[in-house]
Design goal:
The protein has a seven-stranded mixed sheet. The radius of gyration is 15 Å and the shape is globular. Strand 2 and strand 3 form a beta hairpin. It is α+β, with helices and mostly antiparallel strands. The two termini are about 25 Å apart. The protein has helices at about 10-20, 20-30, 40-45, 95-110, 125-135, 160-165, and strands spanning about 1-5, 50-60, 65-75, 75-85, 115-120, 135-145, 150-160. The model has no long low-confidence stretch (mean pLDDT about 95). About 25% of the residues are buried.
Length: about 170
Amino acid sequence: MIHLEKFEKQYYSELIDSIKNAKDLMQFAGPEFVFPLTEEQIDKTLSDENRIAFRLVNVSGESTLGHCEIYFKDDSAKLGRILIMDKNQRGKGIGEQMVILLLEYILKNRKERNVELNVFDFNIGAIKCYEKVGFTINPDKKLIREVDGETWTALNMVLNLEEWKN
């Protein structure tokens, strides 16, 4: 059993420690943060009232499994900064459960029904996870990022909550 809890300052160090290099940070957070991640950077982004951050918690042990955020903008909800902190726990369905919990949160607490997220095209595991939940790739929207001399392409994925809940 897992659940979402509000991401509080006391958990910042767990998140910071799980981001090992600039590429991990870009994959996790996009270009807004600069490696190394700091408490000040987290404070700044979470001061935005349109952003809600959660930690994913293992109910039995109360240990943090992951991190995720929802950003509300232009009548849509954007999922982001989705991270399973322990690499050994990835690929076990935890990400799928986390995304479902985020969608359920939006359904219960907000009016937005269009949800989107961005994921780098090489992150096949994450893409499959999001497709399993019901997201589809939006072919009309891509983002290009330069990372350490490499060009990364972020795919945009979309889901309508009214269709999803049925």
